[in-house]
Amino acid sequence: MLGRVNHIAIAVPDLEAATAVYRDTLGARVSQAQALPEHGVTVVFVELDNTKVELLEPLGDNSPIAAFLAKTPSGGMHHICYEVADILAARDQLKASGARVLGDGEPKIGAHGKPVLFLHPKDFSGTLVELEQI
Description:
The protein has helices at 15-25, 64-71, 87-96; strands at 2-11, 29-30, 34-36, 41-47, 52-58, 76-84, 108-109, 115-119, 128-133. The mean pLDDT is 96. It has one domain: Roll (2,3-Dihydroxybiphenyl 1,2-Dioxygenase, domain 1), CATH 3.10.180.10. The chain is globular, with a radius of gyration of 15 Å. The protein is α+β, with helices and mostly antiparallel strands. Strands 1, 2, 3, 4, 5, 6, 7, 8 and 9 form a 9-stranded mixed beta sheet that branches.
């Protein structure tokens, strides 16, 4: 079911400062910031040869990232995203296995313009998992 790691997401309290660290200190290629209101975040992607790192900053007070940063003010790893060929088939297989899909269970369009779903961290060793259809 799982393909490659698409990205690892890091919640940050200051997107501009985090972007500067990756770009200026580490010499990485970084994307422009992109606001995703339906997900409550602003994102920047750090482009690596084998995957991406997604830097997440809250967009509004109701952002799930705001709640994460309230518990971890300096930021930290938020989730890992795996690619799947068919997100609906993956969802149905996971639900049949007892895994919990967050939200209403229907895919939403993610930052790459592709369908995504999130899986409950309690079902995956304490890690929030995102699936993205490729």
